[in-house]
Amino acid sequence: MNKKEKSKVSVQRQRRNLKAALKNNWQLYLFVLPAIIYFIIFNYLPLYGIQIAFKDYKAVQGIAGSAWVGLKHFKKFFEAYYFQRLLINTFVLNIFYLICSFPIPILLAILLNRIRNKKLQRTIQTTIYVPYFISTIVLAGMMYIFLSPSSGIFNFAREALGMAPIDFMSEEEMFRPIYIISGIWQSAGYGTILYIATLTGVDPSLYEAAEIDGANIWQKIRYIDLPTLIPTAMMVFILDCGKILSSNTDKVLVMQTPGNTATSDIIGVYVYNVGLGSGQFSYTAAIGLFVNIINFILIIVVNKIAKKSANVGLF
Predict the structure, then answer these.
(1) Are residues 175 and 246 in the same domain?
(2) Torsions phi, psi of 19, nearest 5?
(3) Among the residues of 147-200, which ranges form H helices?
(4) Is residue 159 a contact partner of residue 150, using CB atoms and an 8 Å limit?
(5) Which residue range forms the structural domain that includes residue 108?
(6) Residue 1 above 60 pLDDT?
(7) Same domain, 123 and 215
(8) Higher local confidence (pLDDT), 225 or 16
(9) How many angstroms separate the CA atoms of 306 and 299, rounded?
(10) 250-262 pLDDT, tens digit each
(11) Does 108 score more than 90 pLDDT?
């Protein structure tokens, strides 16, 4: 039997196996069907619109009828005088946010797992979950109130200590710390859910054996909790690295003031202003495609490094 015949037989065998699987497990495939349809409609069909990044899109002409311009919009963005500032601001903001925010949910999950009083544990969990459900606009309003130079609680404290009040929201060097700290406060509690679920699956006999061997609480955390959390933490870290150029644009928009533009002017805000404000859909589509390509490359690179160093990866 030559290669062509072997290949034909292999294809026929695969078809028979597929038919048998569909016949025997059709109920399971039926349950999965709505999710498949959802991803096809909302994640794959819109990919057709990516081509407007390479066209001079006109709404009256449609995507197919618009003129093809190739890499014109990409070149325009790369050669713009603001390109370097937008890229640096976005990278710096998100890298600092990742470094500062990533360990917090892990630490909170370990501390919550150490609480033996279940009622107290549930109360603390509920308390730290609540900020996640506060909308971006409400959060920004809270920050403007608390950081107000005339009536803000922080400036009251400064004045009580004999210091002059500061308009925090208008200081360019204060934008990143405020963005990062408020982001940690809002999302750290909710981020513990995945880690707490992972720790729940630890065999209690491991802790019992550790106690018999005389291990203290820190040794249990080091030799049981942390090794258990590493695979989950690495996967979360890989996914977070894929958002390095994708900031919380809504939050930056409501936090941006004329005084902090030098540090708050990021790619997402620029795309919003140019895309909706000026109607340059092809240009902003090209910028969005560039951002997504960079994020995809980062996921691939970080995943490869994680697999080599910790033998953990998404794929």
Answers:
(1) yes
(2) -60, -40
(3) 153-160, 172-200
(4) no
(5) 72-309
(6) no
(7) yes
(8) 225
(9) 10
(10) 899 999 999 999 9
(11) yes
Task: Find tokens 């030559």 and name the residue.
Answer: 2
Do 146 and 250 belong together in one domain?
Answer: yes
| Residues 258/262/265/266 CA torsion (nearest 10 deg) | -160
Got the DSSP string for 215-235? Answer: --HHHHIIIIIHHHHHHHHHH
Which residues, 6 or more positions from 110, have their beta carbon under 8 angstroms from its beta carbon?
195, 199, 221, 225, 226, 229
Spatial CA neighbour of 310 closest among 198, 229, 220, 194 = 229
In terms of domains, do 42 and 172 share one?
no
- 121 and 172, same domain (yes or no): yes
Nearest-angstrom CA–CA distance, 98 and 112: 22
Write down which residue in 12, 47, 68 finishes a domain.
68
Q: Evaluate whether 154 touches 171 at the Cβ level (below 8 Å).
A: no
Q: Yes or no: say if 73 and 53 are a contact pair by the CB < 8 Å rule.
A: yes
Q: For the CA atoms of 108, 110, 115, 116, what is the dihedral angle to 10 degrees?
A: 150
Tokens 């279940």: give the residue. Answer: 118
Q: What is the rounded distance in angstroms from the CA atom of residue 14 to the CA atom of residue 171?
A: 64
Name the residue type at position 81. Y
Per the prediction, the chain carries an average pLDDT of: 89
Q: Read off the pLDDT of each residue in 173-195 and give the average, rounded to a whole number.
A: 93
Give the side-chain half-sphere CA count within 13 A for 225: 21
Residue with tokens 């037989």: 9
User: 117 in a domain, yes or no?
Assistant: yes
Nearest to residue 241, comparing CAs of 107, 91, 119? 91
CA dihedral angle for residue 294, residue 93, residue 135, residue 291, rounded to 10 degrees: -10
- Rounded to 5 degrees, φ, ψ at 68 are -80, 130
Domain count for the chain:
2
C-alpha to C-alpha distances, 98 to 69, 184, 218, 237, 313, nearest whole angstrom = 37, 10, 26, 9, 18
* Alpha-carbon span 313 to 59, nearest angstrom: 42
